[in-house]
Design brief:
single chain, 79 residues, mainly alpha
């Protein structure tokens, strides 16, 4: 479900109120993923140590997981 909600057109599937929330969460998710990618670059270039990358990556992945939960929570089910 999170993968689908990460797609650019996912907001079209939601109510108007949820669209803005999802777009904001998608932006946060993309920013966190970019930071994770930057860690890999820093390691590759020798700017960061493996220990620093692991620590930061772990923290960012936990943050990303929270955002993904929030994204999944924007979907309402009619029951």
């Amino acid at each position: 479900m999170v993968a689908r909600l990460s797609q650019p057109d996912a907001a079209d599937l939601l109510s108007v109120d949820d669209r803005d929330d999802l777009r904001a969460l998608q932006g946060r998710s993309a920013a966190i993923q970019e930071r994770i990618d930057d860690l890999a670059t820093g390691l590759e270039e020798g700017v960061l140590t493996l220990a620093a990358v692991r620590k930061s990556s772990e923290r960012l992945r936990a943050e990303l997981a929270k955002v993904e939960v929030e994204m999944a929570g924007t979907v309402r089910t009619d029951s």
